[in-house]
Automatic annotation (TrEMBL):
Protein name as catalogued: Chloride channel protein
Domain CBS: 600-666, 697-755
Membrane topology: Multi-pass membrane protein
Residues that span the membrane, as ranges: 68-92, 153-175, 195-215, 227-243, 255-279, 332-356, 368-385, 441-461, 468-487, 515-540
Family to which the UniProt record says this protein belongs: Belongs to the chloride channel (TC 2.A.49) family.
Subcellular localization, as worded in the UniProt entry: Endosome membrane; Membrane
Keywords: CBS domain, Chloride, Endosome, Ion transport, Membrane, Transmembrane, Transmembrane helix, Transport
SMART domains in UniProt: CBS (SM00116)
Organism of this sequence: Echinops telfairi
């Protein structure tokens, strides 16, 4: 049923490539690559290098360099991605603090660095030092009172607006592709789609700079998704330096898969989580070799970031925690409830965000990206400043919510009423009744949670770099911390209840509210992205909480089940569909009983298929056919009468071959006969020189019969990454099925608009 020789696709292509022929084998923008062809070309290239390596020492050294080039690219990606992530972290730290004040000794110091260098800082007032001045102290010499508060408030809003305006202007003018998270596009590119410039040098530069600006502006977004895009830009840049990758789109995608792993590695300080994220969430084709290389790239990136030490705590992340109490079986119930909350929030977020983004695309709103960013930033800054939990950066908020309350904590969340007779080690504080500070923190957290849920829906998808990991984790961490404090107080006041009696004695440290925040963060992130394995690994690498894997797994699985009950798509797949990218998701199942003949073109009533004949068309005929149609390629048949299939010729290669022949070969004119056979056809004596194009003919195109079930066809397209597949009956050509036909058919079967998958 399926053409047996297809695996050796375009075996003869290499003869043609031996000639100095520019641009052959490259693809047009917004086209899909032919994975089989790329794989075949790489095999031929490798065979050639191996046979040449036996000829001389120099060729042997060249073959060694070729073999090592993959590891060199990984090393370079890891070094650059780690360095950029470190610089971004340091810059964000400084610019976030700049909204509140400035360091007098050196203006480039953040608040924390400024007070480190001061000799007059005490432990109790470690956030107050004479060298750090708020804007009110600097401008009007007042630190307390209504006028000082209002001035600080205004300066906070002005800085936020300035950062956001700069970011959206840079994106708009220099690199429109630098907006958004980048992960939906990376997934589409890794599935074989070409988007030129998406991973270019300008995109890399502008995304890095604007990422610092938007995170510092206090908008409800993270830097983690965009860091994957930044790392993939690094991967694209370095792969263009080695011909092994620059001339083969399939090989380039192996490098990009590894770069995505390095991106997550530096975003979260989670090298193993990064490799699993690339495997589970982003990559389309992930051979074992790519797994090892991803591991190496993630390792180098994490090592580089650790050397820069952006947080000054010798950790790769801001929210490293160490809890001192185990968890108990009875706590699985609130953990699962947090999983349910995560799944519901994920569903709500995806539906509302997609509806808003669709509105932006279809109404006048989309014409004013700068105004939209300015308005959202203004609302965010105005609402965020009065509440201490929304004023601080989201990473610091998550860090505070994850933290266990030790004796040295100054946070409001740790304002418990202490027993004056207590003599216990410092790190093992027993459960205590909540003080005024905890109750204040609870209602402030509730307000912050409501605000974060609403504002994130409108922020994600604007024309600025915006990641979703950190805002999702913040939503979950706030909900989790509130649940944790509730369970802790319940256990303290009712320790004689049957559920607490076995494990919670008076004066013991039973419940860790920070753990609930961590589980809530995992649940909400899972609900939005539908990650499972990589999510749990990222979370425990992120926090160092290895013994809490079971609660994290319970929450992640529950949130996925709950979210999947309302719709199978995660946020990235939803954005891929919204933008109409031709992406065949491996996770989707095709269960309809249709046949290849129902999907192939031409349909009944449509004009016949445009084909080339093997030896009866002139150069002019072919040029006219190319001019009048916009197909990517043409089947080649014996003759119009017999319609027996011989092979398939790509449009781009036909154009290049004819152009090249006209320039270089004598006697090629418009009425020269073109032939795809080994021997030239018999021509009259005075006819012009014929043009042989057998070398650009793919003699083993993928074919199926007209009665092949579409389930099989969809599977073939997914697993082999085909661009098109020809439909035959007894060797006679009937029609063609392209990747877009398959996507249209799948959309139709799911009662969606079939034209919605066309990338515009």
């Amino acid at each position: 049923m399926v053409h047996g020789g297809a695996m050796s696709a375009s075996g003869n292509l290499m003869d043609f490539l031996d000639e100095p022929f520019p641009d052959v084998g490259t693809y047009e923008d917004f086209h899909t690559i032919d994975w089989l062809r790329e794989k075949s070309r790489d095999t031929d290239r490798h065979r050639k290098i191996t046979s040449k390596s036996k000829e001389s020492i120099w060729e042997f050294i060249k073959s060694l360099l070729d073999a090592w080039s993959g590891w060199v690219v990984m090393l370079l990606i890891g070094l650059l991605a780690g360095t950029l992530a470190g610089v971004i972290d340091l810059a964000v730290d400084w610019m976030t603090d700049l909204k509140e004040g400035v360091c007098l000794s050196a203006f480039w110091y953040s608040h924390e660095q400024c007070c480190w260098t001061s000799n007059e800082t005490t432990f109790e007032d470690r956030d107050k030092c004479p060298l750090w001045q708020k804007w009110s102290e600097l401008l009007v010499n007042q630190s307390e009172g209504a006028s000082a508060y209002i001035l600080n408030y205004l300066m906070y809003i002005l800085w936020a607006l300035l950062f956001a305006f700069l970011a959206v202007s840079l994106v708009r003018v220099f690199a429109p592709y630098a907006c958004g998270s980048g992960i939906p596009e990376i997934k589409t590119i890794l599935s074989g789609f070409i988007i030129r410039g998406y991973l270019g040098k300008w995109t890399l530069l502008i995304k890095t700079v604007t990422l610092v600006l938007v995170v510092s502006s206090g908008l409800s977004l993270g830097k983690e998704g965009p860091l994957v895009h930044v790392a993939c830009c690094c991967g694209n840049f370095f792969s263009s330096l080695f011909s092994k990758y620059s001339k083969n789109e399939g090989k380039r995608r192996e490098v990009l898969s590894a770069a995505a792993a390095a991106g997550v590695s530096v975003a979260f300080g989670a090298p193993i989580g990064g490799v699993l994220f690339s495997l589970e969430e982003v990559s389309y084709y992930f051979p074992l070799k790519t797994l090892w290389r991803s591991f190496f790239a993630a390792l180098v990136a994490a090592f580089t970031l650790r050397s820069i030490n952006p947080f000054g705590n010798s950790r790769l992340v801001l929210f490293y925690v160490e809890y001192h109490t185990p968890w108990y079986m009875a706590e699985l119930f609130p953990f699962i409830l947090l999983g349910v909350f995560g799944g519901l929030w994920g569903t709500l977020f995806i539906r509302c965000n997609i509806a808003w983004c669709r509105r932006r695309k279809t109404t006048k709103l989309g014409k004013y990206p700068v105004l939209e960013v300015i308005v959202v930033t203004a609302i965010t800054a105005i609402v965020a400043y009065p509440n201490p939990y929304t004023r601080q950066s989201t990473s610091e908020l998550i860090s505070e919510l994850f933290n266990d309350c030790g004796a040295l904590e100054s946070s409001q969340l740790c304002d418990y009423i202490n027993d004056p007779n207590m003599t216990r080690p410092v790190d093992d504080m027993p459960d205590r009744p909540a003080g005024v500070g905890v109750y204040t923190a609870m209602w402030q957290l509730a307000l912050a949670l409501g605000f974060k849920i609403v504002i994130t829906i409108f922020t994600f998808g604007m024309k600025i770099p915006s990641g979703l990991f950190i805002p999702s984790m913040a939503v979950g961490a706030m909900a989790g911390r509130m649940v944790g404090i509730g369970v802790e107080q319940l256990a303290y006041h009712h320790h004689d209840w049957i559920i607490f009696r076995n494990w919670c004695r008076p004066g013991a440290d039973c419940v860790t509210p920070g753990l609930y925040a961590m589980v809530g963060a995992a649940a909400c992130l899972g609900g939005v992205t539908r990650m499972t394995v990589s999510l749990v690994v990222i979370m425990f690498e992120l926090t160092g909480g290895l013994e809490y894997i079971v609660p994290l797994m319970a929450a992640a699985v529950t949130s996925k089940w709950v979210a999947d009950a309302f719709g199978k798509e995660g946020i990235y797949e939803a954005h891929i569909h919204l933008n109409g990218y031709p992406f065949l998701d491996v996770k989707d199942e095709f269960t309809h009983r249709t046949l290849a003949t129902d999907v192939m073109r031409p349909r009944r009533g449509e004009p016949p298929l445009s084909v080339l004949t093997q030896d009866s068309m002139t150069v002019e005929d072919v040029e006219t056919l190319i001019k009048e149609t916009d197909y990517n390629g043409f089947p080649v048949v014996v003759s119009r009468d017999s319609e027996r299939l011989i092979g398939f010729a790509q449009r781009r290669e036909l154009i290049l071959a004819i152009k090249n022949a006209r320039q270089r070969q004598e006697g090629i004119v418009s009425n020269s006969i073109m032939y795809f056979t080994e021997d030239p056809p018999e021509l009259p004596a005075n006819s012009p020189h014929p043009l042989k194009l057998r070398r650009i003919l793919n003699l083993s195109p993928f074919t199926v019969t007209d009665h092949t079930p579409m389930e099989t066809v969809v599977d073939i397209f997914r697993k082999l990454g085909l661009r098109q597949c020809l439909v035959t009956r007894s060797g006679r050509l009937l029609g063609i099925i392209t990747k877009k036909d398959v996507l249209r058919h799948m959309a139709q079967m799911a009662n969606q608009d079939p034209e919605s998958i066309m990338f515009n």
